[in-house]
Each structure stands twice: as C-alpha cells, then as structure tokens.
Write a structure and sequence with these properties.
This protein is of the alpha+beta class. The chain folds into 2 domains: 94 residues; 112 residues, Cytidine Deaminase, domain 2. Strands 2-1-3-4-5 form a 5-stranded mixed sheet, sandwiched between helices. β4 and β5 form a beta hairpin. α6 runs antiparallel to α7 and α8 packs parallel to α9. The longest helix is centred in the middle third of the chain and has 20 residues. It is elongated.
Length: 227
C-alpha cells in the first residue's frame, strides 16, 4: 500500500518540493500530483499521476490530447480533477503558442511550421489556416478558414481569395493538420492546393506553399516540388 502524501517527509511532498527547489526538480508524476487530490485512501496523488502517465506511455504530448472523458476513465479522477488537468494542459499549449517568435518574413517552410505547430499539433480535429503575405513575404495576417472532423475540413476557395484581396496580399500560404499523424497529402489535399493556386494566378496572388502539420513534423508542398 502506498503512503499518502501527508505521510511523506515535508521536503518530499510535491508542493513543498516545488516551493523549496523549483518546478524543474519535480517529475512529471509529481507535477500531475499537484493537480490531483488523492481519490482514494489506497492511492496517493503521485500514484494517480503515474497511472495517468502510464496510459499515454509517459508521453506528455499524448497526455495533452486526452479528453475529459478519457481522463475520467482512471479510477480516482472525477469531473473536477479531470477539468483541472485539462485546463493546466491547455495553459501549457497556449504558453507554447505565445512563445513562438513573430516571423516578420517567411524565408522557408520551417518558418511557417514554427507558426502553426503550436496551433495545430495537439488538435484531434482538422483545421485549415491561411497566412497572408506582402511582396516581401512579410506576414500581414493569419486566419482560420475552417474547422472539421477527424478526417477532413471544408475549404472555400472563394473566401480564400476574397480575404486575400481585402488584405491586399501578394502571396498566401495555406496550412492544415492531420490528426492521424500521416503526413502524406490526400487526393483532396492535392486538389484543393491546385484550385487555390489556379484562383490565385487569376488574381495575381501567388500560392507560395501548403503545409500539412502533425504532432511531430510537417510536409511542405513547395519543398516537394508540388507547386
């Protein structure tokens, strides 16, 4: 039987350890333990944290993708604790997003990936985004065009062009994610890329790239000679 946290030496308790030694001194399970109050007399919060990490093979990226329902499947984690964990993970995702440096000028596909990875890598559904650029390839603005399900999203080329004209953009880069992790472009990905490219040619707005984002990597149409 595991000791409850209140039975531990004060300096070994996660909250006290964090205060005395800083956040870096805590393990992933101990950090989760601070969010989780012990659900049973038989388990400590750290035990629950370890079990939760075990579900995702100790992968914090996978942990960030768990839903409230997924979290509640673990005995000892009720609605309140599940919401607390989900909120903490979302704050972490937003911090990662806020840390992405502003890219005044797009010079390569990685510059685009650095913008969109924090936005799209953890999502369980597809989203389609657009970057609008001036003649120097400096970013004017970005916009989420559509949001779909696990396997696809709807893209309206007319809205892409209309918005690009409103921003007086000279170039655009489109980006969407594949929640499955498969970076290979689908037939529909290739078709919509061609449609946007052709529409842009008519409007003198160049489609510079189309990126597909996964949780670990990205695929660039331009880098692969498909534009």
């Amino acid at each position: 039987m595991s000791l409850k946290i209140t039975d531990w030496a004060i300096e070994d308790r996660p909250r006290e350890k964090l205060i005395q030694k800083g956040t870096a001194s805590l393990s992933d399970a101990e950090l989760l333990a601070i969010l989780i109050s012990s659900g049973t007399k038989e388990k400590s919060a750290v035990d629950l944290g370890r079990e939760l990490l075990g579900i995702v093979n100790n992968n914090l990226n996978s942990l960030g993708k768990l839903t409230i329902a997924d979290l509640r499947k673990l005995h000892g984690i009720g609605p309140a604790r599940a919401v607390t964990i989900a909120a903490a993970l979302e704050l972490g995702r937003r911090r990662k997003l806020s840390e992405v440096p502003d890219v005044p000028q797009i010079k390569c596909s990685k510059d685009v990936a650095d913008i969109f990875q924090p936005l799209l890598s953890d999502l369980l559904h597809e989203e389609f985004w657009i970057l609008f650029l001036n003649r120097s390839n400096k970013v004017i603005n970005r916009m989420k065009l559509s949001q779909g399900g696990i396997s696809g999203t709807v893209t309206d080329v007319r809205i892409v062009m209309k918005t690009a004209i409103e921003y007086l953009a000279s170039g655009i880069i489109v980006c969407h994610n594949h929640p499955s992790g498969n970076l290979n472009p689908s037939e529909s990905d290739t078709k919509i890329t061609q449609k946007i490219k052709e529409a842009g040619n008519l409007m003198d707005i160049q489609l510079l790239d189309h990126l597909i984002i996964s949780d670990k990597d990205y695929y660039s149409f331009a880098d692969n000679g498909l534009l």
